[in-house]
Amino acid sequence: MLCQNCKKREAVVHLTKIVNNEKTALSLCKECAAAKGFHSPLDNMPFPLAEILSTMAATTTTPKGAEPKEDITCPQCGMTFDDFTRQGRFGCGGCYRAFRNRLEPIMRKIHGSSLHRGGVPTSHNGESGASAPIPVKEEERLEEELKKAIDSEEFERAADIRDKLKAIRDSQSLEKQQR
Amino acid sequence: MLTMFEDMAKSPAAWLSGKGEESLVVLSTRVRLARNVAGCSYPASSDSDTKKRIIGYFDSLLSRSSILSKGRYCQASEIGELDKNFLIERHLISPTFLNGERTKALFIDPSERLSIMINEEDHLRIQSLSPGLDPKGAFELAAEYDAEIGRHLEYDYDSDFGYLTACPTNAGTGMRTSVLIHLPGLVLTREIEKVISTITRSGLIVRGFYGEGTDVLGNLFQVSNQNTLGLTENDILEQIGSVTREIIDREAAARQRLVDEAADMIADKIWRAYGILKHARVLTSEEVMNLLSALRLGHAMKIIDFLNIAQINEVLLLSQPAHLQNYFGAEMDAAKRDFARAQMVREKMAGSKD
Question: Which of residues 38-97 of B touch A (CB under 8 A)?
């Protein structure tokens, strides 16, 4: 079937419109459908990582009225923060540590949060299995982070930390109950 | 012999068994964990010595770990072009894993439900597949291997950002859970666009089967989680489970609408698909995928009751290029494959009584 608009290309988009109880069917090619503003349900779906990174880089590296921030270089692999915003990929785990402060807003934009709440690897919890209790030290560290976040009016981050703290305390009280 | 995976080729992929919950709508569930070894650059930005070191670490795990020693393990350089496509079609590797430079390795567990890609975008990509809707089952299998590897290797981990990954969209849990779901009712009633925008608003991603941005083949969609940081593994599994159940309900309602409003038309569409599959002499893989979609719908609606889901899945798998060539034991170009495909489908349908 040919496109009813250009009558040249094969129709691939089939539309049914109901206006005042009158039903009309329209078959269009991809190009004409796009021109009329009808899109395939799967168009524009890929995750807009590049866009987030470029806008974040623009706002984090040059805040209004301030000197442009200096570029940071990862001491482990040599990747710069600018490289990262262009490529969208880190060079190594050291990049996370080197770019930490600038990553928080980016992570919030991507994931809606900048703090991990999931499992902990065996090598980091000192015990076998992911259900080992989180050491008290972590709780103290978070309390400190929370204070800092509130002082610097980073309330989104503060909310993240609060939730993480709550999760830790909930799991601890659950364990006590089970004992 | 056409493939080094001869024994695997003898049976359909385990995740296409047609068993599992909600298997009338959901084909399979996949969980993928991205993991990296502390102190090493990621594959895309490391030299071949670093990549060899990662493979070396994994090599040494195989002899030390009882569950890893039981699997199949090979270097990417041993895998030929046909075998590469064979593995992609079975969803054991990602389509890009074996492109370009090949300082990579692959592990497959004995049940063929779990694979580990070494030096993909991350050092390790552990992925497991379950038939039907089964986020928990797929996760538990992947987690078992993850914990085993984590006992021997130090993963790169940060208490703020969780498991560190090459792409910031995977950091945190490093976990992507996805379901492969068949939605002909929503496509036919043209409600799919609305449903997709609802799913997307709930923080999940929807893709057409095989690839991004291309036309949706066979009314198959992949639904997966977008966020990996700030959620627990359990949060992600529950979110995928509950959204998938919602989609299944919407699909059921759409199928009911089709029965109420156009039962004869739908039955005709399904029987025509069956007729073509059973008698055609030339079939492209796209055509087979779309016709099998009608058959799958026919089975779920109890119109076609002499074929089961496992048989439909087997034809779906065998109709893809590498499996098809393996089925005939000969390499063929695309034009020859279309004839061979029709032949294979006829053979598989021959026993069915209508």
Answer: 38-42, 44-46
Contacts of A73 (CB under 8 A, 6+ apart): A79, A80, A81, A98
Write out residues 33-92 of A within 8 Å (CB-CB) of B.
40-43, 45-47, 49, 76-77, 79, 88-92
> CA nearest B232: which of A40, A163, A141?
A163
Distance CA B27, CA B32 (A): 17
pLDDT along chain A (179 residues), means of 10: 81 62 68 62 50 64 55 92 89 95 90 91 63 56 82 84 82 67
Across the interface, of A45, A130, A167, the residue whose CB is closest to B207 is A45
pLDDT of residue B220: 92
The 8-class DSSP code of residue A39 comes to -
Nearest CA in chain B to A124: B157
Q: Which amino acid is at B58?
A: F
- Asked if A92 and A79 touch (Cβ cutoff 8 Å), the reply is yes
Distance CA(B354)–CA(B351), nearest Å, equals 10
How many whole angstroms separate alpha carbon A15 and alpha carbon B190? 8
Confidence (pLDDT) at B89: 92
Nearest to B227 among A42, A90, A111 (CB): A111
**Looking at the partner chain, which of A12, A103, A117 has a beta carbon nearest the beta carbon of B231?**
A117
Q: Which two tokens stand for residue B38?
A: 């502390």
- If we measure between CA atoms, which residue out of B211, B209, B210 comes closest to residue B220? B209
**With helix as H, strand as E and coil as C, how does A46-82 read?**
CCCHHHHHHHHHHHHHCCCCCCCCCCCECCCCCCEHH
Interface contact flag, B196 A41, Cβ < 8 Å: yes
Secondary element (H or E) of residue B107: strand B105-108
Count Cβ atoms within 10 A of the Cβ of residue B113 and give its class: 0-12 exposed, 13-18 middle, 19 or more buried: buried
Residue B219 CB contacts under 8 Å (≥ 6 apart), including other chains: B182, B183, B184, B187, B290, B293
User: B57-96: per-residue pLDDT in tens?
Assistant: 999 898 888 899 999 999 999 999 999 999 999 999 998 8
Q: How far does the CA of residue B268 sit from the closest CA of chain A (Å)? A: 20
Residue B347 dihedral angles phi and psi, to the nearest 5°:
-60, -45
Tell me if chain A has a CB within 8 Å of the CB of B206.
Answer: yes
Dist CA B129 CA B313 (whole Å)? 15
Q: Cα–chain-centroid distance for residue B252?
A: 23
CA-to-CA distance for B4 and A163, rounded, in angstroms?
A: 50
Bridge partners for A26 per DSSP: A15
pTM: 0.81
Region class of A69: left (phi > 0), else alpha (psi between -120 and 50), else beta = beta
Any idea where the domains of chain A sit in the sequence? 1-40, 49-62+69-111, 135-178
Helix %, strand %, coil % for chain B, to 5?
50, 15, 35
Residue contact A42–B154, C-beta within 8 A: no
In chain A, which residues have their Cβ closer than 8 Å to the Cβ of B261? none
